Amino acid sequence: MKRKVFFMMLLAAMTALCACTSGTNGGNNGSDKVYYGGNITIGITQDLDSLDPHKAVAAGTKEVLYNIFEGLIKVTKDGEFAPAVAESYTISEDGKEYDFVLRKNVRFHNGKTVTAEDVIYSLKRVAGMLETEEPDVSKIAAFSIISDITKTDNGVKVTLTEPNTELIGYFTSSIIPCDYADQATAPVGTGPFKFVSYSALQNIIVAKNEDYYIKGVPYLDQVTFKICANTDAAFMELMGGGIDILPYLTNDQANQLKGKMDVVDGTMNLVQALFLNNAVAPFDNLKVRQAICYAINRQEIINLVAGGKGVIIGTNMFPSFSKYYDETLVDAYPYNVDKAKELLKEAGYPDGFSFTITIPSNYEFHVRTGEVIVEQLKKVGIKAEIKLVEWASWISDVYVGRDYETTIIGLDSKMAPSDVLRFYPTTASKNFVNYFNNDFDALFEKAQKAVNEDEKAGYYKQLEKKLTEDAVSAYLQSPAQLVAINKDLGGYCFYPIYVQDMSTIYFKTEPPKQNDQ
After folding, report:
1. How far is residue 33 CA from its own chain's centroid?
2. What dihedral do alpha carbons 3, 103, 152, 146 form, nearest 10°?
3. pLDDT, tens only, 479-515
4. Domain locations in the chain?
5. DSSP string of 291-354?
6. What kind of fold does domain 271-479 have according to CATH?
7. Taking the model in full, what pTM does it have?
8. CB-CB contact of 250 with 368 (8 Å)
C-alpha cells in the first residue's frame, strides 16, 4: 500500500522562515507594482568551486547554482516541498520505495525535454551507481541505500535496501542531461535562470530562462553574481553603487546603511561553531574540549558580532528543525571561567596552551567571531591565534585534508535531520572533526531506518546529546543573516536552506536600461 504525496505538504519539522521584502515567493503581496526586466548585481564572497552541481562542495557555490539547477523537488520559503522536475511522489508504507511522477514538457536550457533517463542518470551519478564513476562527483552518502532506480510509465521508481522516510529531502539534487558532457564549463539545468558566462574570481552571469515551466517568473532579465575577496571588499562595492544585493553583512555594516538601502534579517540555517580536530592534541582530551566550551561566552559573541541577532545552540542541529532539535542542550556549558580553569588543570594544562584557529578570510562574520573568541580564551590562560586562509585552501587542507587544529565555519544541510549530522559518523568522508564513536554510529543508523516519526526524533535527540556530552566542538549559534537590498527592488526571501533565489526578485520602479547600469 502506498500513500500519495502532493506538494501542499508542510514539513512538520520546520517552521516558516521567510522574510520577503514587500513580497512572497514567486510574486508580491500587492503592495508593490512589479516591473519585468532589468539587470542586477549580487555580491558573493567566494569563488565557485565547480559549475557542475554534482561536483560542487561549498555552500556558497550551491546557493548560486540553485538558480540554474533543480531537482525532482525543491524547497519553498515556508519549508514545504514543491514540485520541480517531478509533479508528485509516493512513498511506500514500509519506507523502501519512492515513486516520482515527472512533470510533462520540462526543458533543459539547451532545449532538450527532460526524460526519465536523465533523472535516472542524475540520481545514479550522485549515488555512485554509474558503471564509470567520476571521482570528483560529491556523492550523497544517504543514497548508499539505493538498490535500484528504474523507469515507470510516468516517471521513475527508487528502491531502497532499507527503510528511510526522510530520504525525500535529498531529491532536491540537481537533474542534468544524461548526454551532455560540458557541465563543468557551460552548465545546463532546468532552473529559472540559464548560464551565460563565468570568469574565475570575477563573476558568474545568468539570464532569464524564457522557457521556464512556471509562468510569470523570473522577473529579471539578468543577474550577475560578483565575486569579491571578502565582505569588506563587497561592502565597499555596495557603498559605491556597484552591487544591488549583499547578504552576510556584519551588524556594523548594516548600521552604516540605514536610510541608504533596505536591510532585512532572517536566519542562515547554519550551525556555526569553533570546530575542534578531535584527533589532534590537546583536543583529543575531553576535559580540554569541555573547558573551551565553558570558556566561550556565546551571547557576547552574538551581541558583538551580530548586534544581538542569532540563536544560541548547544549541538549540531538547527533550532528550525523543531521536531528534532533538543533545546535543553543550550545550557550544557554555561559561561564559567572558573570551571574552565578547573578542567584545564585536571587535563594537565594548568597554565593553558596555545593553538591556531584556521578561518577562511572571505567570511568576515566568522573572522569577527574568531576575534571575540581569542579574547575570551585569554581569561582562562589559553592563547589562540587566527590563521586566515583562502577558501580553496580551507576546503583542501581543513575540510578534505583534516590538517588543522581548530576552525570556525558554518555548516549547512538539506531538508533531512540526518544531513545535519552527516559530519560525525566514523566512516563519513565529511567527518573533518575526526569524531570516532561506535555508539554514535549505531544510533545514527537506527535514526535513519526509523519509520515512526516520534521514534526517529528521539534517536536524533540522543545523537545531539552525545555530541554535546563529548564536547565534539564548541557550538555557538544559528546565525542571523543581514541582507542589504537596493530600495528599488522587492521580493527577496529567506529559505530554510542555504540559497540565494533570484527568481523572486523584481523592480518596484521602471528598471534602468542595461547601458545605464
Report:
1. 32
2. -70
3. 988 899 999 999 999 887 778 999 999 999 999 876 5
4. 271-479
5. HHHHH--HHHHHHHHHTT-EEE-SSSS-TTBTTT--GGGGGSS---HHHHHHHHHHTT-TT--E
6. Dipeptide-binding Protein; domain 3 (3.10.105)
7. 0.79
8. yes
